[in-house]
Design brief:
- It contains 21 helices and twelve strands.
- Helix 19 links the parallel strand 9 and strand 10 (543-547).
- The protein is of the alpha/beta class and 595 residues long.
Length: 595
């Protein structure tokens, strides 16, 4: 299959900057009431900030000039009151918007997580787990400030800039134009910086994803690393990825940090032109001190929001790639979905039929691999079918197709006569139990791990399932029995004990079709005998497919299929196949020649 490893940069489809922003900000509409409250608070605070310079002008040119102390005191009291209101509303605005932005991050992460659970096996086959985690955790977290500042910075600062421009042009259009004369220079600088900066931040996100994927893989395989004393080799790879990550970050930051100096230069240039125009061109006799103070204040009020907006724009450019990566996954459609007219699969007896089934991995790509070619067989209800053959022959593919983890390209798979593509996946998988050689033990109690197979299982059902696979005995000997807390991946338990708990988890749902994929490969001989006793009881009355390399574990199977070369080479009972002295006979003799 085509795989994207930590050595390769991910290819992410781009929606376009404007479309990505619109989609990101659409989450704000879910919280319209809170956003409207924030906007009302901002409207009042912006109005107060615009009025403050006019109050200063009134105080200088009128109250102080005319010696009106009473009017000056009244003006000061009014200014104090409105600015106290300003402070309170700013606090309310910050609190509400922070709460909304955190909730939006939870919504996006929840949506992303739920969507990932619907994706097909091919999605997970094609990329490291670490790269998926990078999007769920790091990329989502990086959006917080963009969401907050979209409301608390973009809107009020834009309104402030518009208000300042209008007031300056109304009061004195000549001074106003002089103050704004450096804007074209600013526009050109911003356009040049953002064009190149976005590409560099895309590269940085890819390098961060590569690093995350490698760290996840290295930690998961730490026992292998230490066993083979490969610490130096892994450190060398890690250092190389860190260096790539660091270089990508420096390249991106160097360019992004030019926003601030560009604004400062244009700000200073605008202020110089204002005072030069006010004194030299217009003349000091025509411009009062109060007016110059007001324009000096307003030019600061103009460029300060421009600085904020440039920082916000910098944030957008920096984190837009994170949004693109998130939406890239959300736009990935699952390959295995329920059709428009699916029906519920009723309680089944367990008849499984493959009718001329062909299956190819990565069809239509350079990595195309045909595994099954025109395979047909029927498994009767309650029959136990064992699948044997060399690695890569297609044994696991057969059972994955029964569970509809992949869709076939040709033929039909029927269960009790129902085409599995025409029934809902939930009703299909609910009646199946799957047990593999690498069963994951979750952090939690033994009881919770077993109940994972049936969320509403009673204590009695959990105990019965554990007894059926001979897990009850060792569970009772644990410190707290079924309430013993297990560590991640079952650390502290033996491989056999972990396997037995996984067996109980599969069996508690009492499936009609049972799939055991190398389920006893990691169990010692003594434990295997216990498990086989439990399996025999549970296989009775259930259609079962058992994949095993150890042929000793399948001697009681009703039929054995020898899988290779895209199909079933031979089939029959263990005794029949030994009599034929064909493929199965040679496998058996090769495995037991030393016994």
């Amino acid at each position: 299959m085509a795989v994207n490893s930590y050595r390769e940069d991910e290819q992410v489809g781009s929606l376009g900057k404007l479309q990505t922003l619109k989609r990101l900000f659409s989450y704000l509409f879910i919280y319209k009431k809170q956003v409207i409250l924030v906007l009302l608070c901002m409207a009042v605070t912006v109005a107060i900030s615009l009025v403050n310079p006019l109050i200063v002008e009134q105080a200088i040119d009128v109250n102080i000039a005319e010696g009106d102390l009473q009017g000056l005191y009244s003006l000061a009291a009014f200014t104090l009151i409105i600015n106290l209101v300003f402070i309170v509303l700013v606090k309310i605005r910050m609190y509400v918007m922070s709460k909304v932005s955190n909730q939006i991050l939870l919504d996006i992460r929840q949506e992303l997580y739920v969507h990932i659970q619907t994706l097909s096996f091919s999605f997970f086959d094609s990329r490291p787990t670490g790269k998926i985690l990078a999007r769920i955790i790091g990329d989502v977290n990086s959006l917080k400030q963009v969401l907050v500042n979209a409301v608390t910075t973009l809107i009020p600062d834009f309104v402030t800039i518009c208000g300042v421009v209008v007031i300056m042009l109304v009061k004195d259009w000549k001074l106003g134009l002089a103050s704004l004369s450096s804007i074209p220079l600013m526009a050109v600088a911003v356009w040049i910086i953002q064009t190149k900066s976005h590409k560099r931040w895309q590269i940085f996100r890819k390098k961060a994803s590569n690093l995350n994927a490698y760290v996840h893989e290295d930690i998961a395989g730490m026992s292998v690393v230490q066993s083979f004393r490969a610490e130096e080799e892994t450190l060398e790879v890690f250092d190389g990825l860190v260096e790539e990550h660091k270089k990508a970050f420096r390249d991106a930051v160097r360019l992004s940090d030019m926003f601030g100096p560009a604004v400062d230069i244009c700000w200073g240039l605008g202020a110089m032109i204002l005072y030069w125009a006010g004194i030299q061109l217009i003349g000091a006799e025509y411009v009062s001190i109060g007016t110059l103070v007001v324009f000096g204040t307003y030019i600061s009020m103009f460029w300060s929001p421009v600085m904020n907006l440039s920082n916000f724009y910098n944030q957008v450019v920096t984190n837009l790639t994170a949004a693109e990566r998130i939406f890239d996954i959300l736009d990935t459609q699952p390959e295995i979905v329920d059709g428009k007219e699916v029906t519920e699969l009723p309680d089944i007896r367990g008849k499984v039929e493959f009718s001329d089934v062909s299956f190819t991995y990565d069809e239509g790509t350079p990595a195309e691999t045909k595994v099954l070619s025109h395979v047909s067989f029927t498994a009767a209800p309650g029959e136990t079918i064992a699948l044997v053959g060399p690695t890569g022959a297609g044994k696991t593919t057969v059972v994955n197709l029964i569970s509809r983890f992949y869709d076939i390209q040709e033929g039909k798979i029927l269960i009790d006569g129902y085409d599995i593509r025409k029934v809902s996946m939930e009703s299909l998988r609910r009646q199946m139990g799957v047990m593999t050689q690498d069963n994951f033990i979750f952090q939690g109690t033994v009881r919770e791990n077993i109940a994972y197979g049936k969320i509403d299982a009673t204590d009695e059902e959990i105990r019965q399932a554990a007894k059926a696979v001979n897990a009850h005995g060792f569970i009772e000997k644990l410190e707290k029995g079924y309430d013993t807390e297990l560590k991640e991946r079952g650390a502290g338990l033996s491989i056999g004990q972990r396997q037995l708990i996984a067996f109980a988890r599969t069996m508690v749902s009492m499936p009609r079709i049972l799939i055991l994929d190398e389920a006893t490969s990691s169990i010692d001989t003594h434990t295997e005998l216990l498990v086989q006793q439990g399996i025999e009881a549970l296989l009775k009355g259930r259609t079962s497919f058992v994949i095993a390399h150890r042929l000793s574990t399948i001697q009681k199977a009703d039929r054995i299929f020898v899988i290779d070369r895209g199909g079933i080479l031979e089939q029959g009972s263990p005794a029949e196949l030994m009599e034929k002295k064909g493929h199965y006979y040679r496998l058996y003799m090769a495995q037991f020649k030393n016994a």
